[in-house]
Amino acid sequence: MTMDFKPILPATHTGSPIIIAGPCSAESPEQMLETATRLQRQGVRIFRAGVWKPRTRPGGFEGHGKEALQWLDMVRRRAGMLVATEVGTARQAADALEANIDLLWIGARTTTSPFAVQEIAEVLRGTDTPILVKNPVCPDLDLWIGAVERLYLCGVRRLAAIHRGYKVPGETTYRNAPLWEHVAQFRRQLPQLPIICDPSHMGGSRNLILPLSNTALSLGYDGLIIESQCNPDQALTDSHQQVTPETLSPLVATNRAHTA
Ligand code: PEP
Ligand code: MN
Question: 5, 10, 94, 179: least buried by Cβ within 10 Å?
Answer without folding.
Answer: 10
